Amino acid sequence: MTPETYEKGSLSLAGTVAMGTGVMIGAGIFALTGQVAQFSGPAFPLAFLLAAIISGFSAYTYIKMSDKYPSSGGIAMILQKAYGPTTIAAASALLMTMSMIINESLVARTFGAYSLQLFDVAQKDTLIPVLAVGLIVLAFLVNIAGNQVIGSVSKVAAVLKIGGILFFSGATLWASGFSFEAASTAAENVTSPAGFLAGVALAVLAFKGFTTITNSGAEVRNPGKNVGHAIMWSLTICLVVYMSVAFAVGSSLTLEEIVAAKDFSLAEASRPAFGDLGVGFTVIIAIIATASGLLASVFAVSRMLAMLTDMKLIPHRHFGMPGNIQKHMLVYTVVVAATLAAFFDLGRIASLGAIYYLVMDIIIHFGVLR
User: Fold this and answer.
1) Predicted pLDDT at 138
2) Which spans are transmembrane here (predicted)?
3) In this structure, are residues 23 and 296 in contact, taking their beta carbons and an 8 Å threshold?
4) Is residue 347 predicted with pLDDT exceeding 70?
């Protein structure tokens, strides 16, 4: 990306970590805990640990490439270095872009659904897309305001979200006597090796957001050093948060109760300490998580598309808009995401985003190692 397209050195290490964890620690952590537990059985905290280790090895490729070629639009840059200015590089980057935009729409609708939990209102089906589009517009305005504003907002959201989850998890563990008996008492909870591996595979997706950091690239201060540090710090923070949630939930609920509680498993686990306030707390944390995740995702996608345009791998039209290519791509990103969030219930194709990501990740590693 050309120098005038981005704000070189405008993101601190802390701001970059905050954006990375913003994508990684989303509202999905509450639902993902139950899904991983359903596959992995009482060993589901171990599934998160193994997923973090696997993600660490995967991150090595991104770190080394970003250290050598720091770039805003990092994934597109890695693909271009691995495959050259070819169709496979452009198609793979667009695959990643599609998965992220689909996820943005889902996250925005999740924000709407959680927000309405705080109010006793009718016509929720109508209000959810309205709130979803409103959040996407807000993310656009924050991104337009510049990288310093993005970094500051991301840091505040990260402190509130991560601090809140750790506090809530700690209180739940304290109320349960720091035991892990409830999730492993029943003999029928024992899972098969295949089931455990399926749980690990699902847990890996909880760490996939670290790739967002590579799209900060040259906008990070001292990128050759700090991009790698930001990725490792983000993975470590996420592991601590995921493990704390897993042990907190497992200390109070059986596997059946964890799966049944779905998005509110942590709230149900905290009832001995907080009662019904746990549900309200979970909703507030989920609102912060979805908002910060969308903000960071919009930032990353706009950078990647701008890089693809700069590489002449995809066409571009200004449509009379002022500003640079990155700003134009920001507009295109939010328009597509808002349209999907407003008119489509993407629940049925949500898994496509994960599939697109995994395919793209395999293509990147194959290209770098060959």
Assistant:
1) 93
2) 12-32, 44-63, 83-102, 126-146, 158-178, 190-210, 231-253, 273-306, 327-344, 350-369
3) yes
4) no
Q: Can you name the CATH fold of 8-369? A: Amino acid/polyamine transporter I (1.20.1740)
Mean pLDDT of 220-240: 87
Under 8 Å between Cβ of 249 and 258 = yes
Structure tokens at 227: 């991009």
* pTM (2 d.p.): 0.82
Q: How many CA atoms lie within 13 A of 185 on its CB side?
A: 12
Query: CB-side exposure of 288: number of CA atoms within 13 Å?
Result: 21
The CA-atom distances, in angstroms, between 215 and each of 78, 121, 302, 321 are 10, 40, 9, 24
- Distance between CA 112 and CA 358 in Å, rounded? 28
User: How deeply is 212 buried, as exposed, middle or buried, from its count of CB atoms within 10 A (0-12, 13-18, 19+)?
Assistant: buried
pLDDT bucket at 41, cuts 50 / 70 / 90: confident
- Alpha carbon distance 205, 105 (integer Å): 17
Q: How far is the C-alpha of 266 from the C-alpha of 261, rounded, in Å?
A: 8
pLDDT over 50 (residue 4): no
Q: Which residue has the tokens 């016509």?
A: 123
**DSSP one-letter code for 2:** -
**Phi, psi of 11, deg, nearest 5:** -110, 125
Q: Is residue 11 classed as helix, strand or coil in its secondary structure?
A: strand
- Tell me phi and psi for residue 220, to 5 degrees: -90, 140
Q: How many alpha carbons fall within 13 Å on the CB side of residue 83?
A: 22
Question: Which of residues 351 and 164 earns the better pLDDT score?
Answer: 164
Residue 269: other Cβ atoms inside 10 A: 31
**What are the residue boundaries of the structural domains of the chain, listed by start?**
8-369
User: By the 8 A CB rule, do 52 and 237 touch?
Assistant: no
pLDDT at position 1: 45
Identify the burial level of 81 via C-beta atoms within 10 angstroms of its C-beta, where 0-12 means exposed, 13-18 middle and 19 or more buried: middle
Of 66, 36, 292, 49, which Cα lies nearest the Cα of 162?
A: 292
Closest CA to 297 of 96, 149, 152: 96
pLDDT tens digits for range 109-162: 888 888 887 887 877 778 889 999 999 999 999 888 877 888 888 889 889 988
Average pLDDT of the segment spanning 262-285: 78
